[in-house]
Amino acid sequence: MIFTKSFFLQARSPVLVAAIFIAGIGGTFQYGFHISVLNSPSLFIKELVNSTCQQRYGYSLEPWELSLIWSFIVSIYCIGGLAGTLYAGRLAGVYGRKRTLLLNNVVAICGAVLMLLSKTALSFEMIMVARVLYGLNAGVSLTVHTMYILECAPKRLRGMVGVSVAFFVSLGKFSGQLLGISEVLGTEERWIWLLAFSGAAGLLQMLTLPFLPESPRYLLLEKADKHGCETALRRLWGAEMDPGPEMEEMLAEHTTLKGVKIQGLKDLFLDHNVRWQLLTILVTFVTLQLCGINAVYLYSFDVFQAAGIARESLRYAALGTGLCEVSTSIACVLIIESTGKRVLLFRGYLCMAASLALLTLTLYLQTFVSWMPYCSMVLIFTYIFFFSSGPAGVTAPLPGEIFTQSYKPPAFMVACILNWVGLFLVGMLFPLIVEHLDYFCFLIFFVFCFFTGVFVWLHVPETKNKTVMEISEDFKRMHQKRRYSLQSKLSSIYINNIQTAISTKL
User: Fold this and answer.
1) pTM (2 d.p.)
2) CA-CA-CA-CA dihedral for 415, 419, 424, 430, to nearest 10
3) Chain-wide mean pLDDT for the chain?
C-alpha cells in the first residue's frame, strides 16, 4: 500500500521524476562509473604508457615501474575527488545547487576530450590529467547532487528519493562493467571512447538541467525568495499539491536559525549540540569504505572459478554481481518508506557481518569440501544484497537529513572527505592486506560491519517522515535519556555503598 502511494505521488510529479534522473546521470553516476571503468582497458593503458616511454626516451619500463605509474593513474582520481569535495559546499552555497551542477559538467567534458586525444598524442599524462578532472567532477557531484535532490523532494518521499543517489552509483558501476566488455567498448580500438563516456553523461545533464527549477529550500532559506520557492515547489510536485505545509516547516526552521550563519568545519566539530550527528556521519561513512565490498568483488572471481565457471565467462559472472547491486538498489527504493532507514542500516551491517564471517569459513573449507564454493557464491550475493539494500542506499543522503541547513555544507564535506580518503586508502593498502592475510582479511571488515551495526542500533534514531528539527530533538532525547539512566544507576550504586558502609559501622 505504501509502495503504491509513493509511486502514485511520484507519477503526479513528472518534473520531480525528471529531476531525479537528470541530476543522477550527471551526478553520482559519474562517481560509480569511474570506480569500475578502468578494469577493462587496464592492459591497453599500460601498453600506451610503455609505448610513450619507448618513443620518447628509448626506454622500456620495468614491471615495477609500470605498476607504479598504473597505481598513480588509478589513485589520482581520489585526489581530484577530495579537492572537488573541499570546494563543493562553498560553491553550492554561493552559486546555488543547479548552477554548480551545470558548471561541473564542463569539467567532465574537458576530461573526456583529453581522454579522446591521449592515444593519438601518445601521452599517458593526458590520461592522468583527465582522471584528476573526472575526480573533481565526481567530488562536486557527490555533494551537490545529493543536496539538490533531497531539497527538491517532499518529506514523505525524501527517503525514496535519497536512495536514488546510491542507485546511480550502482548504475554507474554496472555501466562501467557492461560497456567495458569486448563486445561493446572494451577493445584496443574503442577503449578511449569507453573512458570518454563521462563526457556524454555530462553533456546530457548540461542540455537538460536548465529546464528544471533551482532547489526550493535553497531559494527560501539562503536567498529569502519565498515566491521563487513556491513556484519551484509547484513545478516539482505538481500544481494540485499544496506546498504550504512544507513551506511553513521550512520557514519555522528558517526562524529558528535566523541570524545563524553557514557554519564551517571547525564549528561542526566544536558544537556539542550536533556531536552525535557528527559521530553518526564519521562512523557510517568510514565503514561504508571499510565494510569489505571491494574485497568481496575481488574474491568473487576466485569463487566463481572454483564453482566451475569457465575463465572466459568470469566477466559475465562479474556483470551478475553488478546487476545484483543495481536491482537491489531498486528494491531498496521500494521498501525504504515502509521499513525505515535506521532498520535498513543496522540490519544491513549486522547481516553483512554474518555473511563475511560465514564467507571466511566457506573459503577456508572449499579446499576440503567439493560443494563449498557454491555456498561461498551464495554468500557473496547475500552480502551484496544486504549492502545494496541497506548501507549503500541509506548512508549517502544521511548528512542532508540529520543536520540543519547551517550545518549541511560542512557535514557533506566531512562525509565526502571520509569517502575519498577511504577509497584512496583501500586502493593503496587493500592489495597488501590481501597478500598477507588472504581471505582472512574479511575478519577485519567483519569487525567494522558488526560494531557499526551495533552503534546505529543504540545511538541513531529513525529519520522516516521527520523534519530535521524533529530528528535533532530525537538525538537529544535518546542520549539525554541514556545519560540520565547512567547517572541514576551510578547514584544508586553510590547510595547503596554508603548505606552498606554505615550498616557495617553500626
Assistant:
1) 0.82
2) 130
3) 85
- Written as nine digits, the cell of 370 is 567439493
DSSP-assigned letter for residue 307: T
Q: Can you tell me whether residue 30 is helix, strand or coil?
A: helix
At 92, the amino acid letter reads A
Where is pLDDT greater, at 314 or 26?
Answer: 26
Contact (CB, 8 A) for 245 and 467: no
Place of cell 557464491: 377
The CA distance from 204 to 215, in Å, is 20
Please name which of 251, 190, 265, 182 lies closest in space to residue 217, comparing C-alpha atoms.
Answer: 251
Q: What are phi and psi of 257, to 5 degrees?
A: -100, 10
More confident residue, 163 or 50: 50
Task: Give which of 230, 301, 208, 221 is closest to 261, Cα–Cα.
Answer: 221
Give the C-alpha separation, 207 to 102, whole Å: 9
- Specify the residue for cell string 548505606: 499
Tracing cell 589520482 back to the chain, one arrives at 76
How far apart, in Å, are the Cα atoms of 321 and each of 183, 186, 305, 360? 19, 19, 14, 19
Best CA proximity match to 329, nearest among 132, 109, 162: 162
Specify the pLDDT at position 370.
83
Amino acid at 245: P
Amino acid at 226: K
